[in-house]
Amino acid sequence: MDWVDIPDKEIIKGCLENNRRSQELLYRKYATQMYHLCLAYAPREEAMDILQEAFFKVFRKINQFQKNGSLAGWIRRVVTNTAIDHYRSNLKNGVQVELTDVHTHELNAQPASEDIHYEDLLKVVNHLPESARMIFNLYALEGFTHKEIAEKLEISIGTSKSQFSRARKILSGYIEKYDLGD
Questions:
Q1: Is the model's pTM score more than 0.85?
Q2: Same domain flag for 82 and 8
Q3: Tell me, what DSSP letter sits at residue 97?
């Protein structure tokens, strides 16, 4: 039996017993998928840190997993919350690019004849200022409401809405400018 075929139920049981092999299997099974999620929230350099921190939380809190939902969904939530914690930590440490400063960012354009690919879209989203990227991802990818985003990020609902709107304008402008949507 290949490690990918081992049922989540069996892996969870081993993780609850602090079995290192089970933890490794869980990591191997979900790390790539969750790393791509991390890349939506942070640049490549920070995404791996978020991923590692999230999996430490998964291993520590595996007993909190409610078996009525999917394990992948639960891990995704842990990763998303870890990305939010990372974002808030950066805010407290003064590491943030304001949305109004986006004009100073140069985006690496792809030739106009190429179709937009996931990696290209990810690059564009990653060029958004951190606060706009976080709000865009929470709303567009994770399906949070602006009220939920405001609570999680400790901002006003209006700020969430306006930054999401501006992020969309920036992204659509980039896609139109470089004709990435065809």
A1: no
A2: yes
A3: -
